[in-house]
Known about the structure:
Blueprint: E1 2-8, H1 20-23, H2 28-41, E2 44-50, H3 54-64, E3 70-74, H4 83-92, E4 96-100, E5 122-125, H5 130-145
Parallel strand pairs: 1-2, 1-3, 3-4, 4-5
Helix pairs in contact: 2-5, 3-4
Amino acid sequence: MKRVILINGPNLNLIGTREPEKYGEKGFEDIMQELNGFAGKNGIVLEYFQSNNEGDIIDKIHAAANNFDYIIINPGALTHYSYSIHDALLSVKLPAIEVHITNIFARENWRQKSVISPAVSGVISGLGTDVYLIALIYISKKLSEK
C-alpha cells in the first residue's frame, strides 16, 4: 500500500465554520470521509494531520520521510512566510503538492506569494475543498506509474 499524508496548517481546523463564503460549509470530517473513500479504492493509506503550530508541522514533515510516499500540504497563512516549512519539505525529499481552498492569487497582496511553492511538485489553488481530492487523484496516478 502506498502512503500519503495530508497536512493542514493554522486555522484549517475551522473549515466548515470559518468564513464559509470563502472556505465552504463542509466540515473537514466530511472531506476526509470522501478522501478516505477514494484512497481505499486506490490502494492508498491516507493519514491526516492538522496543527496551528509551525514547529509541529515541521516535525510531522520530518517524520514523514521514512513513512510516506507523498505529502499534500495546505500551509494556511504559513504559506506566505514559513521558510522553515519550505526547507523541511526540501530536506525530506518526498514529492509534495501544495493546496489552497481559495485562489491565493486573487486575494490580498500579501497572500499572493507562496514561499512553499518552490519546494513542491505542484500547486492546486482556488477550487474550494475539492483541491484535496484533486491532489489525491493526481498522486494516485503518479503512484500507479511507479
